[in-house]
Amino acid sequence: MSMQTHVGEKDIYRYIYGMLPEKTKIEVDLHISECEECMAKVTELLHRKMEACKKIGGLFLKAYKNSLTEEEVKFWDAHIKLCDKCALRYAEFVKTKEEGFISVLIGHAKDLSEIFKIQDFLRLPAFVIEGKTEEKSEIRNVISLSKKGIVVVLVIDKGGNIKAYMSSDRHLISGVKIALADRKKTGFEKIREAITNSDGVADLGNIATLPRVSSKKGYAVILSNLKEKVD
Ligand SMILES: [Zn+2]
Ligand SMILES: [Zn+2]
Asked: pTM for the full model?
C-alpha cells in the first residue's frame, strides 16, 4: 500500500474489526495517519460500529429468547460475526442467565444482637408480615438490606433462629445461597450459610451460637446461586 492507493473498502472493515494481519494493519495505520480521506472513512465506520455495538446490546434479551425480528436477525448475524467484543459480551450474558451470578454482597448487618433490639414492625415488608411462614407475633426484630432489585430481610424468630427472607422481581427466590460472612484480609469467610426454600426463606441457625466477626462493618450478607427470572 502506497500513498497513491487508498485503503480498500474491505480492508477498512477488517481494520475496524481487528481482522487484518499485523503487517497490513501497520501499513493502514501509517496510511491513515497521512491520508485525510481514509481517516474520515475509518472514523465514520468506527462510529457506525460503536452504534451497532450499542444496538446489539439492546437485543441480547430478545436474541436469548429467540424473538428477534427477521431484520434484527440479519443485523445480528452480520455484527456478531465480525465483532469479537459483542460476541464475548453476549456469551457473558448467556452465562449469567443460565448459571447465575457467582455472588452478590447485598450489605452488612452490624452486631446482630445489638441492631435487632430496635423494634420496627412498621417497616416490615409486606411479604414478611403476610407471613409465608411465621405469625407476626413471633417476629421480634428485623433488619432489611437491598441491592440490585433484591431485598433480604433478616429476622430473629421467637426461638432465636436467624431467618433470611428474600424477595425480588428480577431474580428467582428459591435455591439461593444466603451466607453470613466475616471480611478477613484474604477475603470473605463464611460463618453460616443456608439455601432458600420455595418461599425465599433460609434458616441461618441460632443467634446464641453465632460467632462474632472481626470486621467493624459487621456480618457481610452474601447471596450466591442467583438466577435472573426468564419470562
Ligand atoms: Zn487514503
Ligand atoms: Zn460490537
From this structure: 0.52
Nearest ligand, CA 81:
2
Ligand 2 mean position, distance from CA 194 (Å): 40
> Which range is least confidently modeled, 73-82, 97-106, 155-164?
97-106
CA of 29 to the centre of ligand 1 (A): 11
Would you state the torsion angle of the CA atoms of residues 47, 48, 54, 57, taken in this order, to the nearest 10 degrees? Answer: -140
Residue pLDDT, tens place only, 169-212: 888 999 999 999 987 776 678 899 999 999 899 999 988 888 88
DSSP 47-107: HHHHHHHHHHHTTHHHHHTT---HHHHHHHHHHHHH-HHHHHHHHHHHHHHHH-EEEEEEE
How far, in Å, from the CA of 48 to the mean position of ligand 2?
10
Alpha carbon of 96 to ligand 2 centroid (Å): 19
List the CATH code of the domain at 101-226.
Answer: 2.60.40
- The domain limits of the chain are 9-98, 101-226
40 Cα–ligand 1 center, Å = 9
Q: How far is the CA of 209 from the centre of ligand 1 (A)?
A: 75
Query: 104: CA distance to ligand 1 center in Å?
Result: 50
Task: Classify each residue of 98-134 as buried b or exposed e, where b means 16 or more C-beta atoms within 10 Å of its C-beta.
Answer: eebeeebebbbbeebeeebeeeeeeebeebbeeeeeb
